[in-house]
Amino acid sequence: MHYDPIKRSLGNVFNRTPWLRRLFYNLLDLLLLRTWHVHRELRQWAQGRHDQPQNILDAGAGYGQYTYWLSGLSEKWQILAVDVKDEQVADSNNFFRQIGRRNVQFAVQDLVLYQQPNSFDLALSIDVMEHILEDVEVMTNLHASLKDGGMLIISTPSDQGGSDVHGADDASFIEEHVRDGYNIDEIQQKLRKAGFDRIEAMYSYGLPGQISWRLSMKWPILMLGVSKAFFILLPFYYLAVFPLCLVLNWLDSTSRHDSGTGLIVKAWK
């Protein structure tokens, strides 16, 4: 399944007005389980920092939903959000100017090449590493770009069924992925190679999360891949599954998992 054309279609629908884009961000925050896990870690990082200037890098910002959420927590935080897609960066800069978030700037950058030494207190890499073959180079650049004591947060599929791969004969559900998922020890070894010396890794998308992902993401994406006409049916579909997905997301994000199809990794410089 090629995910990018579907993402572009969604972006075209919700980019029409700032109000629609805000609605889109709020829906993503509720439906995407990885957001529940990432927000939990960001809230912990933010404690005691709201009144302090902080420099944040959103590395591979995509739609910009994490930049939007973080920029609303403190006007003293300066956020640079980078992505390789020119049109997405231009759309995001226009949106953030329209809503008056002057502490945000989007820029076109290739993470394999981008480095801004000793500049950031926090860096995010949310569902990015599985798209980049040269992942150690990216991790090394992020390490160099952090200040001493700065933290990197990564969300990525694991090798325990991430990308919906459960056997040798399975192909990744998202064809843009260059790897199906990381072994939990492998990604820690790569981060150490990149220079990080303190690392915490945990599984996400345990059993509750896997059920929620199928209901809220996999099946709707498959429907949209068949025909854009399913956009008309999606609101009715989500009315039916939304309450259950919320419960499943809460269960997954408040539990520790011995295994899971996702990984949440924190690393400090």
Polypeptide structure, described:
By secondary structure, the chain is an alpha/beta fold. The chain has one domain (3-205, 262-268): Vaccinia Virus protein VP39 (Rossmann fold). The chain is built from nine helices and seven strands. The longest helix has 20 residues, at 207-226. The protein is globular.
Number of strands: 7
CATH architecture: 3-Layer(aba) Sandwich
Whole-number mean pLDDT: 89
Widest β-sheet, arrangement of strands: 3-2-1-4-5-7-6
Fraction in beta strands: 15-25%
Remind me, CATH topology? Rossmann fold
Any low-confidence stretches, pLDDT <50, length ≥5? 165-173
List strands and helices in order, with pairings.
Elements: H1 4-14, H2 18-31, H3 33-46, E1 54-59, H4 65-71, E2 77-83, H5 86-98, E3 104-108, E4 120-126, H6 135-145, E5 146-157, H7 184-194, E6 198-204, H8 207-226, H9 234-253, E7 262-268
Parallel strand pairs: 1-2, 1-4, 2-3, 4-5
Antiparallel strand pairs: 5-7, 6-7
For this entry, give a set of tags.
seven-stranded mixed β-sheet; Rossmann fold; alpha/beta; single chain; 269 residues; 9 helices
